[in-house]
Design goal:
Elements: E1 16-19, H1 23-33, E2 37-42, E3 46-50, E4 58-61, E5 81-85, H2 88-100, E6 107-110, E7 114-120, E8 126-132, E9 151-152, H3 155-160
Parallel strand pairs: 1-4, 5-8
Antiparallel strand pairs: 2-3, 3-4, 6-7, 6-9, 7-8
Length: 166
């Protein structure tokens, strides 16, 4: 095996497929609250949803999980799905939607390279909503390596983004 192989720089993660207990409940969260659009259904047991007309960013299915319980917190599995917003104002907009819906956050962090909101979907799957700062603003150590950290996110400053002109 070639030990020097690196994944191509333009590679991206295309979609996530989640097992859910109740498809309608999951659709209310991902489509009605977060704003994803339904692209297709597979019968009554699976839905594919996207942003901007892509075939799907998220698959939701009840094939093995209909009526099931959330996965135990202290077990192997997906920690969270991360949804990247194009600009900070978009993150502020979804934060305002969550506030208006009284949907609980599990955290809100400034990571230096990004700002993130954390919550759980109705099946207790972790969800990160975030935006990346421009690369030239990413904090670095003296040796040039990234200096990522976890600090509290200033939520009032984030909401103030909505009052600024685009």
């Amino acid at each position: 095996m070639d030990e020097t192989y690196k994944v191509p720089a333009k590679t991206s993660i295309g979609h996530v497929h989640l097992k859910v207990a109740d498809l309608d409940r999951a659709m209310k969260f991902y489509c009605d609250l977060l704003g994803f659009e339904l692209t297709t259904m597979y019968g009554n047991d699976a839905a594919f949803i996207s942003a901007g007309g892509y075939h799907h960013h998220i698959g939701l299915n009840t094939w093995y999980s209909k009526g099931g319980s959330p996965a135990p917190v202290n077990s192997a599995g997906l920690f969270h799905t991360a949804i990247l917003y194009p600009i900070r104002k978009d993150l502020a907009t979804i934060f305002k939607r969550l506030l208006d819906a009284k949907y609980p956050l599990t955290g809100a962090s400034d990571h230096g390279v990004s700002e993130a909101l954390y919550l759980n979907d109705p099946d207790q799957n972790g969800v990160e909503l975030y935006w990346d700062r421009p690369r030239e603003q990413w904090p670095k150590h003296e040796d040039g390596s990234l200096h990522m950290y976890t600090r509290p996110l200033d939520l009032e400053d984030l909401l103030a983004e909505l009052d600024q002109d685009s």
